[in-house]
Amino acid sequence: MGSLDGRVAVVTGAGRGIGREEARYLAGQGAAVVVNDPGVAPDGGGGDSSVARQVADEIVAAGGRAVANTDSVADWSGAARVVATAVRAFGDLHVVINNAGIERGGALGRLSEAAFDDVVAVKLKGTFAISHWAATYFREQHAAGARADRSIINTASGSGLLNPLPTQTNYAAANAGVAAMTTVHALELGVLGVRVNCLSPSMIRTRLTAAVPGMPTAPATPGAFDPNHPAVIAPVAAYLAAADCPLTGQVLSVRATAVTINRGWSAGETISSGAEPWTVDRLAIAARELTVTDPYEDLAASLSGALGPMDTAQVRALVAAQVV
Ligand SMILES: NC(=O)c1ccc[n+]([C@@H]2O[C@H](COP(=O)([O-])OP(=O)(O)OC[C@H]3O[C@@H](n4cnc5c(N)ncnc54)[C@H](O)[C@@H]3O)[C@@H](O)[C@H]2O)c1
């Protein structure tokens, strides 16, 4: 008996990295899986239809159920085909993992319009497109009287949540948008019995993070637990996918074996001018009561975890090298 017996899942970007491990793990837990991946380069260019097929073949060879799909999630009708593939091949859809993502970084004055559009198209619009078509199917099923737990699992990044990084305008904005959509969709789809949550992987060794400073190498001892392996995310995804999981509307960061619930933006102090409108002069005085943080100090604190102690001068120098 697996925790996902009888469930049908779509995993986008499942040909490599985190998505591949999620697809394999879900199948190992009994789910039938649509392995979606056009097999593109890390920046979204090119394509290789064998990438999704290989993962689907591996799952089937191991005794599981899987089919491959090579549509791009950024393509509106392609996203519809991804969802339709699950229903056609396996008769239903219970779990959607929006995992596909690409990266094309650059500091603001150097980031091209195309790089912005492409990253947002895959991560933000792709999550919307797949979820839109899944929600359309879920709504039809609900109207026809079918009742089942269904689960959408989005994928964000610390870059768009707690750890914004220079050179990631497009990636951070798209990932923050995915976290925001998660809450909206949890509210909207809860009335149909659909739970919507979000995972935020951290420091997972894939081709997207190959150049991240401080990324540990794989353990030398064969079989030793590797806390940075893409497989560490899969059990958390399977937990969120299971019919008896109570969570909805949550964003969980996963780093090695640590699973942290995110609280999102939270309000700090309030200043008010009472019944009178503000003036700039009065604001200049009253605003001193607000506790403000220095973004370079925040970045130094977050980078110190991976790179060792850093001060704001070092961080400013690192950023300047990208911007000036
Ligand atoms: N690796 C990390 O530490 C980390 C950290 C935070 C967030 N993430 C997120 O996790 C997800 C997976 O990243 P990864 O590190 O496994 O990267 P990866 O490059 O190894 O895998 C991503 C897969 O998505 C596929 N893909 C790209 N564009 C697609 C499209 N338009 N439609 C369908 N599939 C597409 C790629 O072909 C690739 O196989 C991404 O959304 C990424 O932003 C990863």
Task: Describe the protein's architecture and organization.
With 324 residues, the protein is α/β, with parallel strands linked by helices. It has two domains: 8-262, NAD(P)-binding Rossmann-like Domain (Rossmann fold); 280-323, no CATH class. Helices cover 40% and strands 13% of the residues. Strand 5, helix 5 and strand 6 (194-201) form a beta-alpha-beta unit. Helix 3 packs parallel to helix 4 and helix 4 packs parallel to helix 5 (169-189). The protein is globular and about 65 Å long. The mean pLDDT is 96. The protein binds nicotinamide-adenine-dinucleotide.
How would you write the strand order of the largest sheet? 3-2-1-4-5-6-7-8
Largest sheet: 8 strands, mixed
Helix fraction bin: 40-55%
Mean pLDDT: 96
Give the H and E element order.
EHEHEHEHEHEHEEHHH
How many discrete structural domains? 2
Q: Can you count the helices?
A: 9
Taking the alpha carbons of the first and last residues, their distance comes to 58 Å
The number of E-state strands comes to 8
Ligands, deduplicated: nicotinamide-adenine-dinucleotide
Radius of gyration: 21 Å
In short:
Keywords: Oxidoreductase. The chain is of the alpha/beta class.
Show the helix and strand layout.
Blueprint: E1 8-12, H1 17-28, E2 32-36, H2 50-61, E3 65-69, H3 76-90, E4 95-98, H4 113-143, E5 150-155, H5 169-189, E6 194-201, H6 234-241, E7 251-255, E8 258-261, H7 280-286, H8 295-307, H9 312-323
Parallel strand pairs: 1-2, 1-4, 2-3, 4-5, 5-6, 6-7
Antiparallel strand pairs: 7-8
The chain binds nicotinamide-adenine-dinucleotide (NAD).
Nicotinamide-adenine-dinucleotide binds next to helix 1 and helix 4.
